[in-house]
Amino acid sequence: xxxxxxxxxxxxxxxxxxxxxxxxxxxxxxxxxxxxxxxxxxxxxxxxxxxxxxxxxxxxxxxxxxxxxxxxxxxxxxxxxxxxxxxxxxxxxxxxxxxxxxxxxxxxxxxxxxxxxxxxxxxxxxxxxxxxxxxxxxxxxxxxxxxxxxxxxxxxxxxxxxxxxxxxxxxxxxxxxxxxxxxxxxxxxxxxxxxxxxxxxxxxxxxxxxxxxxxxxxxxxxxxxxxxxxxxxxxxxxxxxxxxxxxxxxxxxxxxxxxxxxxxxxxxxxxxxxxxxxxxxxxxxxxxxxxxxxxxxxxxxxxxxxxxxxxxxxxxxxxxxxxxxxxxxxxxxxxxxxxxxxxxxxxxxxxxxxxxxxxxxxxxxxxxxxxxxxxxxxxxxxxxxxxxxxxxxxxxxxxxxxxxxxxxxxxxxxxxxxxxxxxx
Length: 424
Prior knowledge:
Layout (H helix, E strand, L loop, with lengths): L1 H23 L3 H14 L11 H17 L4 H6 L1 H26 L5 H12 L1 E2 L1 H6 L7 H9 L4 H14 L8 H31 L4 H21 L5 H21 L6 H36 L5 H27 L17 H11 L1 E2 L1 H8 L13 H31 L9
Antiparallel strand pairs: 1-2
Helix pairs in contact: 1-2, 1-13, 2-13, 3-11, 3-12, 3-13, 3-16, 5-6, 5-8, 5-9, 5-14, 6-9, 6-16, 6-17, 9-10, 10-11, 10-12, 11-12, 11-13, 13-16, 13-17, 14-15, 14-17, 15-17, 16-17
């Protein structure tokens, strides 16, 4: 009963806080986090309850990621294969390794598996501040496409690494060969299974002419993909992304053939539903992380909060440095299209890299990765390192969002990107 009441009150709180953010023109992510933090301090009806990792992995992440992937136009993946899909994979792997090793150096004695979890959480980036502030409309299509296309690779690798890390809790560091084998299986087998599932659901939806049933099938797709991943022993994210890309491709084919996967009424209903779910689930993660932070700081007894905060700051700087280097390499590649400048001509690759790195904050997926770390080891003993993971990731995500809200508008004015590429 306490769990049901907890979920219901979190949904109510997230909706009210979103309304407050819109009324006050305040970043919703900051308001959600602050609301979760305040809910711990205020006496009220929200019960004290630790977040179950299964709720995060099974109920929150699948629809949250599917909503973004299934809305991608297939042509975008072709246009941004280098700067989007490939760079998203490179960012994820490079940041996981760099931040995991940095956490090991900055937090001596912390479990290596916990350091890996911190690295994974830091690895997945997204331009949330651009979207929340409306600055995404001032981005050239090349940069917008690159950010969007990363949804096809970064979450797949990040969440696969996260689940693998969670399974390693309480044991020795798994080693690079085991990690590489897991990623290969999740990427190849998991995505292939998702593609087959996506075609099956698309075929079924084409035979219907009932908006409610079509919308119900759309809502069921990410959970079916998640269950399929678990059944074949892979990460649920591989099947989810495979199914989402197939649905996006089928929607694009519908425009050419007229054979629609869903009726116009169903597509509008489904679009509105996914937008609402995206806001609620994103808000729930920020709210839950706000609630979890005080307990995590208190639980990490051997690590003072100043050490945790310093670690979070150092990891943020490291993330932006790695993202800048990889973005510069991608933009300087001969196959990469030039980014126009508002004053005419093109933006130098290093300035474009500064814009991409500065605009890519830590993803809401990072919160899910931290909250999904098991509370206990397989032996049933409390996993004490979890509190350090949650504290560092929470401080990193929220501090990065706050700094970006202050700095990104000035960064955009300094780079002065042009928007003439947005024609098609």
